[in-house]
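User: Can you recover a sequence for this backbone? Please restate the input before giving your answer.

Assistant: Of course. Working from this structure:
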């Protein structure tokens, strides 16, 4: 039999992974509810992760500050991966393990929500951010991979993509991210239609 190309093999693996995340639907709805409730109360979203997941954190916050599908008002969301000054000073003066937890302390208020991404589940800076968020009354949603790693069992809502390849886990995280954005946006627009929020 002809060997699969890299693309064919990746697509085949991605199909398998994406099928498994259908099991996460109740948790996806819960994550969307937690975030929509927070934004409608006037709280904000924080997000963190390393490497590709750092980009996911910024991708997510941009969907709220700027736009996703629909025309609507902006909502407050801060990517903890985006400020070079904060990241380098904290990494340099304290530790890279503290680059996100330090910002959770700086920006996180009771009732805010932290979305934290780690495909291994073992990034110490993400683990510390989750623990710090819990300490300060910030709700937590963890996007994990493999079996959840050291971050398993900490967050209020945990979305574990049970696969061993970082790239495939990241792709599944991205689909979960967009699904949550869509669900949250529906709630935000319904609130605007009910006159509870300005539409734009
Ligand atoms: O994007 C990729 C691999 O696809 C890499 O940049 C990857 O995100 C980095 O190695 C991260 O440091 C991995 O961290 P984590 O997902 O285990 O927390
Ligand atoms: Zn990548």
């Amino acid at each position: 039999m002809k060997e699969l190309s890299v693309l064919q093999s990746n697509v085949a693996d991605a199909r398998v992974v994406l099928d498994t995340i259908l099991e996460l639907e109740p948790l996806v709805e819960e994550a969307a509810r937690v975030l929509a409730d927070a934004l409608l109360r006037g709280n904000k979203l924080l997000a963190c992760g390393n490497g590709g997941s750092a980009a996911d954190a910024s991708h997510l916050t941009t969907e709220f500050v700027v736009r996703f599908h629909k025309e609507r008002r902006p909502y407050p969301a801060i990517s903890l991966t985006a400020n070079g000054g904060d990241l380098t000073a904290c990494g340099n003066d304290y530790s890279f393990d503290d680059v996100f937890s330090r910002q959770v302390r700086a920006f996180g208020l009771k009732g805010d929500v932290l979305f934290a991404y780690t495909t291994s589940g073992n990034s110490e800076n993400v683990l510390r951010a989750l623990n710090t968020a819990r300490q300060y009354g910030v709700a937590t949603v963890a996007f994990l991979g493999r079996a959840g790693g050291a971050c398993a069992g900490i967050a209020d809502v945990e979305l574990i993509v049970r696969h061993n390849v970082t790239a495939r886990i990241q792709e599944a995280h991205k689909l979960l991210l967009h699904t949550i954005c869509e669900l949250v946006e529906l709630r935000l627009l319904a609130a605007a239609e009910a006159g509870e929020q300005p539409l734009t």
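That completes the design. Strands lie at 45-48, 77-79, 113-118, 139-145, 157-161.
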